[in-house]
Amino acid sequence: MAKPTSEDWQAKLFEAGQLFSPAAPIDERDLFAGRGPQIGKMLEAVGEKGKHAVLFGERGVGKTSLGKVFHAMFPKTIRHIMAVREQVDPSDDFSSIWRKVFKDLRVRSVDAEPGARHTPLAHDYPGPIMPDDIRREFQDIFSPNDLPIIIIDEFDKARDSVDRKIHEMMANTIKHLSDYSVNATIILIGVADDVTDLIGEHPSVTRCLEQIPMPRMNKEELREIIDKRLPRLDMRMRPDAYFKIIELSRGLPSYVHLLGLYSTHAAIYRQSLIIDEIDVDAAIKRALEKTQESTQSDYNAAVHSNRLDSLYREVLLACALAKPDERGQFSPTAVIDPLTDILDRPVRIDAFQQHLQKFLERDRGAVLVRRGKPRAYKFRFRDPMMQPYVIMRGIEDRIIPESAKSVLSFPAEPTLFEQLDTQSRDNAQT
Length: 430
Fold this sequence. Notes:
The chain folds into 3 domains: about 35-215, P-loop containing nucleotide triphosphate hydrolases (Rossmann fold); about 220-290, Helicase, Ruva Protein, domain 3 (Orthogonal Bundle); about 295-430, no CATH class. The chain contains 18 helices and 11 strands. It has helices at about 5-20, 35-45, 65-70, 95-105, 130-140, 165-180, 195-200, 220-225, 240-250, 255-270, 275-290, 295-305, 310-320, 330-345, 355-360, 385-395, 400-405, 420-430; strands at about 50-55, 80-85, 105, 120, 145-155, 185-190, 210-215, 235, 275, 370, 380. About 40% of the residues are buried.
């Protein structure tokens, strides 16, 4: 194989930027990784008459990407798929959302001349649009051979809409379409802990809704993101580099894209076709520099203190390293092990309980949110992107312990801090 020229390396830099997309959703089916269970449920919802779907989860887990590509995974022999995807913004009310949909649904007038251009359905609705209007239009314009899918993304942004009944009206629309067996599927996508966060309390629509939670990605899915891209660059990655990127990403695909892109760039700058751990280290530095000002500002507010013994940085780092559930939530007990290792001494919950409370407050950047009831609280990062940032800052600022950094270099180890001294853990909880 001929040695790459300078033009070849420049071409690889450009191609890497096209393959890894930390700032944009995936829109190419062949580059989409993982999410088999969620794809299956969405396809089932579309295939079942009268069924609709709600896809929900944390910010940054890939909901928009899935919404853009899943309909391309239907068998080629299936009926004519008509997918319309619209994005909600805070100014939208119910009518404006559906006017967006109607603008992308083009119909031909019954008395039009042959060959006449199709016009947007929105032309017929300059004023308010009601759930029954949608039902009647869909019954009229879609044929039995059509498979229409209406994807309404970022529906959570409608919470502050001027139309306070938007959730009730959307629920009524879904119920109307289901009750009349209309040949169309609505898929709502948004940031939420559960379905009620998106459409409110509407028991009557539960039977016709496929509720699809979108958890963080598992390690195999995260690795697949890298494995689908590097062969196109004729590059490969060493195991330690793989493991470090996956561990630091904390289940968030956008961070795999970010660190994957910058690691690939670092290797290309070295004119190497093999991505090594040193390239990941260079990617961490670059990622910290490129992090949004709002994230840096919230982090600084969270850890700032005039007291040297305040432990805000250490406790926040321990929160980022705490073992979460599939929704990214962790209990105070889960903070004990990583904080014990960071401080190199046993700790108890009462040593950092006040810190957790402070992280909820605006003065500390409100970096955490709390769910549940007293004595059974769970916490998560308000912005999931903050979690990997905190870990990378811990590495860069040399407050993450060497034991954790060494784990990142050994793929045989499953997770950070999983094998701590049992005696230290027992002492911390007594």
